[in-house]
Amino acid sequence: MSNIEDPKLPRNTARRRFLGVAAAAGARLASATAIAMAATSSPARAVGLHLGWGKGNGNSDGNGRSGDGDGGSPQCFLRGTSILTDLGEKPVEHLQIGDRLVLAGGTTSAVRWVGRQSFKRNGGCWHDSVVPIRVARRALTNLSPHSDLYLSPGHALFLNGVLIRVKDLVNGTTIAPIVPHDDMTIEYFAVLLATHEAIFAEGAAAETFHPSEGGLQNFSNSSEYMRHYASDNFETSMTSFAPVLGEEGGWEHLKALVLLPLVASPDPFEEARMQISLQAKSMEV
Known about the structure:
Oligomer: single chain
Structural class: alpha+beta
Order of helices and strands: HHEEEEEEEEEEEEEEEHHEHH
Distance between the termini: 6 Å
Helix content: 25-40%
């Protein structure tokens, strides 16, 4: 297993969170069954350089608040993340409007806009909603991701036919938060297509940006979006690419389980976590 001893949450904290997710998931699965029955009857310095962290001016603080409004939990890729285009991989910060990205289904779609956010610590500690989570190389499968992948906690991976937020997959080893140094700036980039899709980031299938009401205003370059698409109604018309399962939003999770096709596994979320756990064990060599 490659060295992933980078700064992260204390191991005991990560373990408590992991066990808590497992317990909550078990309760959700039991409840989902009842609903369904009713319905039918690396070293820190190296990491900092890769992530593009450094001193500078940010437009938001580490509590997740943007200078343009409430930033909430960003749904983005960290600077330096390689995104697969029809011409090969390209750093997310170099993507331009019109670049064609390869979708999980094998087709391509043009970039409509790339939003930018930056965060600096303001106060005693970094807010959990902006601390990057690293998905280590080969954490998902022997081939995915092909390099360490850094995502905002609320960003979802496309696994087993559903979307799962990376924060709900934390195991403290192969998938873990990486807390920045106090004087660093975190730079996130959101990729917006005409529809909500799954694209390839460092070889792993991950969602594109899904704007919510007012969400675009949280980006430092939101004026660029308005210049190009002033009359668009993306924020109210875009539908989700796939069901979202996970720890956040118990009812949303249960409803998605019931609506999944009958051929799907009983709980793709738990199945994904088990697969990641087995993959982590296989890497302990």
